[in-house]
Specification:
Blueprint (H helix, E strand, L loop, with lengths): L2 H14 L6 H12 L5 H19 L1 H13 L4 H23 L9 H21 L10 H11 L10 H11 L4 H30 L6 H24 L6 H20 L1
Helix pairs in contact: 1-2, 1-3, 1-10, 3-9, 3-10, 4-5, 5-7, 5-9, 6-8, 6-11, 7-8, 8-9, 9-10
């Protein structure tokens, strides 16, 4: 792993983790397209640590208020939101642990291309057909559970955790910037838990090596992740998800074409 490769991986992770375009798909496609070696689980830990840092730094004030009111004033808006995030986290965490060993079986470029296209269409219609009138503080138990369960589909590269949760939130009538914020809050324990789980695994196996590329990837993913979160929250105040749907369609078609040409 060179420094340049570590930076590229960090940029891809920082963008793909928070924009609805699937970071996992892009991280699988990078070595496939350029003939690089698979960076392995240790490097995956670095990338997820970086995006964990990004989402915590961006929302640290929100999390302090959520945690405080979640336990001291659970009936307040932020108190209720805290428990909705926790409830929505459970399905993704449980199924993530159960299905983690099957992840490699889904890392097929043709499948990724198909899923990029399918989710691009889903995201477009979810955004277009939504009533767009429900704010984050009114998300409620039912919507939280449904959004949480939808995360399970993100095990397939190309689906995207942020893509599927934002699509489901839009189908359920949530405002664009509100479902984006809920998705980011929801991603905090998921990304942090994923990084911690795999960190313990590689540490126990004795394969954890913290070197310059590892640190570079963490820092790059954190910086780019912060910029991506800010960009999307600002962008969705005025515009929809159409640009991401178009990107998915083009990228998916290109991946399928390259797959069959090769």
């Amino acid at each position: 792993m060179t420094i340049v490769q570590a930076i590229i991986y960090g940029v891809v992770q920082g963008i793909g983790e928070f924009l609805p375009i699937s970071s996992t798909a892009h991280l699988v496609l990078l070595p496939w397209l350029f003939g690089w070696k698979d960076p392995g689980t240790v490097f995956d830990v670095a990338l997820h640590l970086g995006t964990s840092v990004a989402v915590i730094l961006f929302f640290w004030k929100d999390w302090i208020e959520l945690i405080k009111n979640g336990f001291t004033n659970p009936k307040s808006k932020s108190g209720k939101l805290f428990w909705m995030v926790i409830i929505a986290t459970i399905p993704g965490a449980v199924f993530g642990l159960v299905l983690d060993k099957y992840m490699d079986s889904f890392k097929n470029p043709a499948l990724i291309g198909v899923m990029l296209i399918i989710m691009g269409i889903v995201l477009y219609y979810a955004d277009k057909l939504s009533r767009s009138n429900i704010k984050i503080e009114n998300i409620g138990l039912k919507r939280s559970v449904i959004i949480g369960i939808s995360q399970v589909l993100a095990i397939v590269p190309g689906v995207s955790r942020s893509g599927i949760t934002m699509s489901m939130g839009r189908f359920l009538g949530m405002k664009r910037e509100d479902i984006a914020k809920f998705t980011f809050l929801l991603s905090t324990p998921i990304i942090l838990g994923d990084a911690g789980y795999h960190l313990l695994k590689v540490a126990k196996a004795g394969t954890l090596v913290i070197n310059t590329p590892f640190i570079t990837a963490v820092i790059t993913a954190a910086i780019v992740g912060l910029l991506s979160i800010k960009f999307l929250l600002d962008y969705l105040k005025e515009r929809g998800f159409g640009i991401f749907s178009v990107y998915r369609l083009i990228a998916g078609a290109a991946v399928i074409a390259i797959y069959f040409i090769r």
